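Hello forum,

I keep getting stuck at the same step: I have a sequence, I want structure tokens, and every attempt I make locally crashes halfway through. Rather than fight my setup again tonight, could one of you with a working pipeline run this one for me? It's a single chain of 384 residues.
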Amino acid sequence: MELFLLVFSVSIILFLAPMISALFNVSVVVVEIFLGMLGGYFGLIYHDLTFVQLAKFGFLYLMFLAGHEINLKLVEHIKKTLALQVVLYFAMLYGVAAFFCVLFGLGVVYFVALPIFSLGMLMMLIKEYGKDEEWLNLALSIGVVGEVVSILVLTIFSGWLTYGFGLEFYTAILSIMVIVALGVLFLRIFQILFWWYPDFKKYIIPDSDQYDQDIRFTLALFFIMTALMAYLKIDAVLGAFVAGLFLKMFFHHHYGLTKKLEAFGFGLFAPIFFIYVGSTIDLDVVNSAIITHAFFIILLMVLIRLISSFVAFYKYLKFKPTILFALSDSMPLTFMVALAMIAYKAELITHDIYIAFVLASMIDGLILMILIRKLYTYFKQQGG
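Reply #2:
Ran it on my machine without issues. Output:
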């Protein structure tokens, strides 16, 4: 009976979320998280192993789509004209985070958590506003760099807690650097291969395909890359992203494939992930002190990005797009939860602080998705 209620509840949320989103003019992600939270509170959604694994798959699939949505022309433009601004942006993020940590007497966990990135919510903005918004394209490109930096920071942080500053710690750091370098090499090798033998791509994904070979190859690549990262004890997010980037670089002309991938991603796997995220909020343990601290964390996250964005990108984006850019990169949902869990298990933070971090990551996504929509509409009406 419990399993039936779980499947039934998730299915109903999947079906009704877009309708409720349109009715109340709020983002569908907000609706999915909120309904997931209510489902968890009333016991309709529980953490069945299959459901949890499917939610994790949904997150990885989102990261795969993130790689596939990268605007390669914009990346080249950023490399040529904005490289210094990107470096300045990340230096400012960690510099301002350090300032606030000293100012408010916060620990190392906050210094690591406040500038952290995650692309999950950003992908839903891409779905909602399209790929032609300059601020959003820049946010995605910067978010990719931020996510790689965040994976490295999480690896360093986790390694320090597990091994101290011993040999194992430096081995873990070296491993992820080698993997990133090999990922770049992997893409370069295929770039050369397809340049010399352009017809080879047609054998992988034929133009005329009656056996859905495009989907077979895509999912095979996705599973192989994520499994490889898991085997190497590195965040599987990196493998999913590289798989998506591979498709974007070499098979971007297959528009039908893109539509298939996005339909499954945004229509099934991503919603299941966001429903699961909502269900993880235990409303019974939440009190006013935890809620206050959660909003304090959100305020700091947004402030450091607003300050850093205006310092680094104001001349490029101007006032209104810079605000939207800063807010869109201020939703580090999954990585903040992961960091809080690592810190809590290492007894660096209390249970209440852990709940505050988790709650902040959820509320942050809910509030900013609504705020971005309202500001975007307002700026459009004002001609911005």
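The mean pLDDT is 83. If your local run keeps crashing, start a new thread with the error log.
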